[in-house]
Design goal:
The protein is mostly helical and 342 residues long. It is built from 14 helices and 5 strands. The chain folds into 2 domains: 217 residues, Rossmann fold (3-Layer(aba) Sandwich); 93 residues, Orthogonal Bundle (Tyrosyl-Transfer RNA Synthetase), CATH 1.10.240. The strands form 2 sheets. It has a 3-stranded parallel sheet with strand order 1-2-3. A two-stranded parallel ribbon has the order 4-5. Strand 1, helix 1 and strand 2 form a beta-alpha-beta unit. Helix 10 runs antiparallel to helix 13 and helix 13 packs across helix 14.
């Protein structure tokens, strides 16, 4: 008889900023879909995290959360193979965050690289709030409340996972249950994050207005590709180009097959093909990825309640797991909800 070992647990989330684009897909979502059969996966819509920068207008938070979930389901996340939920529907995240805020030195938060970087870059909003400073601490609570083994991240998020590990160590240093540590230290699971340019050549981002959305129908995708920036050195049709410095070339490297790539390199460098033809091939590759998503998303767009029900069911499961951890946390801190012994 073979004894199956329990799967390692993975935890990750996305802010509820509305419909997702191809950058979100290649940066995280595509990898999540692959993880569903290998790990016990918890994926959450981070609506509280969205408030750290967008606290002034919360009118679309719920709709944005639903839009994110529909894109997840369209991309291939399966509620029978993973748990999808909404962060704010699991209030234990907030309780653990509060307790962590009591023991975390302020300097730990101020030295997180993305804190200074975003304070400098996002100048149109007042980010002088505890919510923004404490973002990584809420993130630590998100992870540790599920006792996640791994957190899939890109290189730029490794510092956040290291802070989570430091918070877990500090908690375990202060609080134990009969000498045993309560919170395991998660490991970062480095995921490949290919360079995905937007239609203007910069990093694909909603704030730049240069995105190809997962929900864009084929005619829209093809139209956006027609206007995409190309190799600046290739001014005329007869000029040879270099796919390695061309944003369209970057798209081909991610989405096109080897045969198409060979045609791109040969045709572009010899000026044997024009940019319009090259863009058409890139559009063909994108449509092959996006069309199946369009098919899967139809039933959820026609009946959004289906997606919302999946989030509610996932949130109920997440609350059970989170509550079990919080019972241990409270016991370790001598703050159990049970009546004290007589």
């Amino acid at each position: 008889m073979t004894i199956s070992t329990p799967r390692k647990r993975v935890l990750s989330g996305m802010r509820s900023t509305g419909k997702l684009h191809l950058g979100n897909f290649v940066g995280a979502l595509e990898n999540w879909v692959k993880m569903q059969d290998q790990y016990e996966c918890f994926f959450f819509v981070a609506d509280w995290h969205a408030l750290t920068t967008d606290y002034a207008d919360t009118s679309r938070v719920k709709q944005n959360s639903l839009d994110v979930a529909i894109d997840w389901l369209a991309a291939g996340l399966d509620p029978d193979r993973c748990t999808m939920f909404i962060q704010s529907h699991v209030p234990q995240h907030a309780e653990l965050h509060l307790l962590f805020s009591m023991i975390t030195p302020l300097g730990w938060l101020e030295r997180v690289p993305t804190y200074k970087e975003q304070r400098e870059n996002i100048t149109e909003k007042d980010l002088g709030t505890y919510g923004f400073l404490g973002y990584p601490l809420l993130q630590a609570a998100d992870i540790l409340i599920y006792k996640g083994d791994f957190v899939p991240v890109g290189e730029d998020q490794v510092a956040h996972i290291e802070l989570t590990r430091e918070v877990a160590r500090r908690f375990n240093q202060f609080y134990k249950i009969k000498g045993k540590e309560v919170l395991p230290e998660p490991q970062p699971l480095l995921t490949p994050t290919p360079k995905l340019p937007g239609t203007d050549g910069r990093k694909m981002s909603k704030s730049y207005g240069n995105t190809i959305m997962l929900s864009d129908p084929e005619p829209v995708v093809r139209q956006k590709l027609k206007t995409m920036t190309t190799d600046p050195a290739r001014v005329r049709r007869t000029d040879p180009g270099n796919p390695d410095v061309c944003p369209v070339g970057d798209l081909h490297k991610i989405f096109s097959d080897k045969a198409t790539m060979a045609k791109v390199y040969e045709g572009c460098r010899s000026a044997g093909i024009g940019c319009i033809e090259c863009k058409g091939w890139a559009a063909d590759a994108l449509v092959q990825v996006l069309n199946p998503m369009q098919e899967r998303r139809k039933k959820y767009e026609e009946n959004p309640r289906l997606a919302w029900d999946i989030l509610e069911a996932g949130s109920a499961k997440a609350r059970e797991v989170a509550n079990a951890t919080m019972e241990q946390v409270r016991e370790a801190m001598h703050m159990s909800l049970n009546a004290p012994p007589k």
